[in-house]
Structure formats: structure tokens, C-alpha cells
């Protein structure tokens, strides 16, 4: 496969942009090699700047649950843009979008739209501190919640792939207020809460971990967090930036039947445009300005183009059979890959939920960051390159999810499995 143009562009980009990329995980640091520069996407496929085509399992790291350039979404964004891209004043589209989110997510009665998942989690922490009058936060090892200072501690994903435990430049006071527990261990949370009584404002968790690779919650884990948070007067924040509108239309909270106090959304909610959101009960959201004392604002927040794309995406996701289809495609990929790895006698653990899975090059079950980190990164890197050479684009890190969209077809599944069979024998 010739990727001459990608190499040329990467050369130029590295002189102009740190690492040649505008988000670190795009630089392929953990798998090595020259990142692919993309030029076009349609449905489940993306084409690079040399014209090679790939079945895309990155899907912009989650937002593209309907695939690339879904015509209805593109049209909605174009129509909205033609009427003016931003007013800095309220619009009808924001009301329609808020109604959709409130109806979709069980724990949300009021919602505020922002421009990214990072803004959503950063604001959710500020809200939790403002509402409780406390300062400490509990997060989980391997939980990624965007690049807010307070949350760049043991943050999995791109941070883990870089080998940075905690980012340089974070004020030590922010990091000091953040305590780290182990995913799937209620006991580790209990110990922290008991050691810091009346000091913890919030526990923030990805209810289905996605940034240490996909790790579903063990039975009782989310219920345990709910009970502990309530008992200790801390708020429970579900970061559903990945799981929202993916594992089900109502997010992980609708699947596992556990209600958080605050929910963070991002990725899918913007239909491929920059949108994040945080929502909670009306009582908690009354803390947010202009109703209450917690300030949070945004020039382009709720802009018509992003709202129109988001509304259209959510409406399309509500159509009957969409999630059944995504779950079915995911299941066929996962079971196919499982038997191929077994035949090749290559150790692998495949964790999955509806619309996302991770192939861990690991002989033992992966239930948290420690077990995820025991995976064979070199074997993963070889598999990744063998797949891209065969026209399949998986995430370029062991600690990320493969995302399945409604646009992936039975044919895509067959081609992906054929590529994997070939990659494993090579
Ligand atoms: C991607 C992600 C974020 C950050 O969202 P951005 O839009 O990249 O700022 C936060 N939380 C989780 C769980 C994510 O996967």
C-alpha cells in the first residue's frame, strides 16, 4: 500500500504542529510509523490522501455512530449554516436539542451544552464542588475525562500511550484534590471516602470504561458507587461521553439501571460537530449561572450548525432497529475475531458492549487498568499495522475502543475478518 502523500504531509505537519497532530493519540506514538492522513469518508469507509480505502473502526473516536457523512446529518448542518452559524443569543434549535437529551437520558432534567467532552467534565466537577461545598474528587485509574487539569491524573488512553502518568504543567494543588481508585473495585472507593469524610465532592466514572480499552462494569460496581456516594454526601458523575447514545440510546445508565447525579455527554451528541453537554436534576442545575453562583459560559455553545447535526443524529438513532443492528454487527465481529485468535493460538481477550470492543493482546481477563496494562503492546502494534495494510483501520493504541457504526455492513464484517485471518497468519 502506497502512502507517499501521508508521509509528505506528516513531514510538513511536524514542522508546524507539535507532533504533526492536533490531538496526541493521532500521532501513532504507541504503534510507531507514519499516521494516515485522511481526505474523505462515506459510511463505514474512509479514504486517505493517497486514495487508499479503509473500513474505519476509529469513527472519529466515537462520534460517527451513523458513519461518515450521513446525508441527512450533512444536509441539516448545511441548511443551518446557510441561515447563520452563530448568534450568541438563544435559538429554537437549542430548545429542541435539550428536549431530546432530557427525554433520552434518565437522570437529566436540565442540560447545558458546551463545545467538547472536556468542557463537559470540567464543568461537571465545578458544579459538584459548587453544589456540595467540598473540594476533593475521586476518579479511577485509566479513566479519561478530557484534558482538564484536575482530571489528568492516571488518565488512561492517549495519556497512557504516551507514558505520562500525570501531565506536566498541572498545578499541584489541582492534582492533589484528585484521588485515584481502581475501576471495578467498590472497596478502593470506600477506603478513600472513609479516609476523607465530608471532603469528597464527587466520584467521576466512565460507567463503561472506554479509555483503557473497553472494560464493562462488574456486576454490583455501579450500584456500589451509587450507594457509597449517597451515604457520604458526594455526587456521582457518569462520564458518558463515549457510552452515551452508544451502548443504548439512554446511555449506560439506562442499561445498568443506576442513576448518577450528573451526566456528561459529548462525541455522538454533536453528530460529528463539536458539542458536549452536562446535565442533572433541576435542583442541581439551579446552581449554574445565571440561576446560581457557578459560572460557566461559551461563545459558540449551542450554535445552530452543531445543534442541527446533533438533533438529526439523535432522531435517526431513535428509529426502530438501529441499536439492534449495531449490537448485531458488534457481536459478529467479536465472535469472529475470538475464533480467529483461538485458531491462531494468539492470546486475546475481547471485551465488548453494543457498538464498541477492544482486542486485548492478553491471556488474562481485563477488568481494570492494571490488567489492561499487562497486554502485549508489541503484538498489538504488529496486528494494527497488518490490518491497516489490508484496508482496515483500527484504533492506533491498545488502550482504545474499536467503534462500530450503523453504517458497518455484513460485507464489512466479512472483509474485516478476512483481513484479520490474513494478518494473524502473517
Ligand atoms: C473523549 C472523551 C472525553 C473528552 O472529550 P473531548 O471532546 O475530546 O474533549 C471525556 N470523557 C470521555 C470518557 C471521553 O472518551
How are the SSEs placed, and which strands pair?
Layout: H1 4-16, E1 38-42, E2 45-48, E3 53-56, H2 71-82, H3 92-104, E4 110-114, H4 117-132, E5 136-140, H5 157-162, H6 172-176, E6 178-181, H7 186-195, E7 200-205, H8 221-232, E8 235-239, H9 252-256, E9 262-265, E10 276-280, H10 282-285, H11 304-317, H12 322-343, E11 349-353, E12 356-360, H13 369-373, H14 377-389, E13 392-393, E14 402-403, H15 410-425
Parallel strand pairs: 3-13, 5-6, 5-7, 7-8, 8-9
Antiparallel strand pairs: 1-2, 2-3, 4-10, 9-10, 11-12, 12-14
Pyridoxal-5'-phosphate (PLP) binds next to α4.
Description:
The chain has 15 helices and 14 strands. It has 426 residues and is an alpha/beta fold. It folds into two domains: 4-69 and 320-425, Aspartate Aminotransferase, domain 1; 71-317, Type I PLP-dependent aspartate aminotransferase-like (Major domain) (Aspartate Aminotransferase, domain 2, 3-Layer(aba) Sandwich). A seven-stranded mixed β-sheet has the order 4-10-9-8-7-5-6, sandwiched between helices. It has a four-stranded mixed β-sheet with strand order 1-2-3-13. It has a three-stranded antiparallel β-sheet with strand order 11-12-14, with helices on one face. α2 packs antiparallel against α11 (304-317), α3 packs parallel to α11 (304-317) and α12 runs parallel beside α15. The radius of gyration is 21 Å and the shape is globular. It starts with a helix and ends with a helix. Bound molecules: pyridoxal-5'-phosphate (PLP).
Amino acid at each position: 500500500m502506497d502512502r507517499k502523500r501521508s508521509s509528505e504531509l506528516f513531514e510538513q505537519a511536524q514542522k508546524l504542529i507539535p507532533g504533526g497532530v492536533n490531538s496526541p493519540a493521532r500521532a501513532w506514538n504507541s504503534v510507531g510509523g507514519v499516521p494516515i492522513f485522511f481526505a474523505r469518508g462515506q459510511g463505514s469507509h474512509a479514504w486517505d490522501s493517497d486514495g487508499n480505502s479503509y473500513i474505519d473502526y476509529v469513527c472519529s473516536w466515537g462520534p460517527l455512530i451513523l458513519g461518515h457523512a450521513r446525508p441527512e446529518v450533512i444536509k441539516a448542518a448545511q441548511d443551518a449554516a446557510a441561515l447563520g452559524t452563530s448568534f450568541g443569543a438563544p435559538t429554537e434549535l437549542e430548545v429542541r436539542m435539550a428536549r431530546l437529551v432530557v427525554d433520552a437520558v434518565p437522570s437529566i432534567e436540565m442540560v447545558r451544552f458546551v463545545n467538547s467532552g472536556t468542557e463537559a467534565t470540567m464543568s461537571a466537577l465545578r458544579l459538584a464542588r459548587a453544589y456540595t461545598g467540598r473540594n476533593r474528587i475521586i476518579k479511577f485509574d485509566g479513566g479519561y475525562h478530557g484534558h482538564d487539569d484536575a482530571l489528568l491524573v492516571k488518565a488512561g488512553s492517549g495519556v497512557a500511550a504516551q507514558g505520562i502518568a500525570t501531565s506536566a504543567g498541572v498545578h499541584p494543588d489541582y492534582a492533589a484534590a484528585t484521588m485515584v481508585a481502581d475501576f471495578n473495585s467498590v472497596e478502593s472507593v470506600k477506603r478513600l471516602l472513609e479516609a476523607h469524610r465530608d471532603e469528597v465532592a464527587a466520584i467521576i466514572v466512565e460507567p463503561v470504561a472506554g479509555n483503557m480499552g473497553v472494560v464493562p462494569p462488574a456486576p454490583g460496581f455501579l450500584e456500589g458507587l451509587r450507594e457509597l456516594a449517597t451515604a457520604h454526601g458526594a455526587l456521582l458523575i457518569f462520564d458518558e461521553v463515549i457510552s452515551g447514545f452508544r451502548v443504548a440510546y439512554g446511555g449506560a445508565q439506562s442499561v445498568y439501571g443506576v442513576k448518577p447525579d450528573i451526566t456528561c455527554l459529548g462525541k455522538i451528541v454533536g453528530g460529528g460537530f463539536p458539542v458536549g453537554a452536562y446535565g442533572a436534576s433541576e435542583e442541581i442545575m439551579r446552581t449554574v449561572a445565571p440561576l446560581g453562583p457557578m459560572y460557566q459560559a461559551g461563545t459558540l455553545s449551542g450554535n445552530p450548525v452543531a445543534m442541527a447535526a446533533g438533533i438529526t443524529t439523535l432522531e435517526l438513532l431513535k428509529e426502530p432497529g438501529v441499536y439492534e443492528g449495531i449490537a448485531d454487527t458488534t457481536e459478529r465481529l467479536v465472535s469472529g475475531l475470538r475464533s480467529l485468535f483461538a485458531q491462531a493460538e494468539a492470546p486475546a481477550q475481547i471485551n465488548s458492549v453494543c457498538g464498541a470492543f477492544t482486542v486485548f493482546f492478553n491471556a488474562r481477563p481485563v477488568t481494570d487498568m492494571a490488567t489492561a496494562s499487562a497486554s502485549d503492546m508489541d503484538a498489538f502494534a504488529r496486528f494494527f499495522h497488518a490490518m491497516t495494510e489490508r484496508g482496515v483501520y483500527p484504533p492506533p493504541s491498545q488502550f482504545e475502543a474499536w467503534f462500530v457504526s450503523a453504517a458497518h455492513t455484513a460485507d464489512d464484517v466479512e472483509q474485516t475478518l478476512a483481513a484479520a485471518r490474513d494478518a494473524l497468519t502473517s
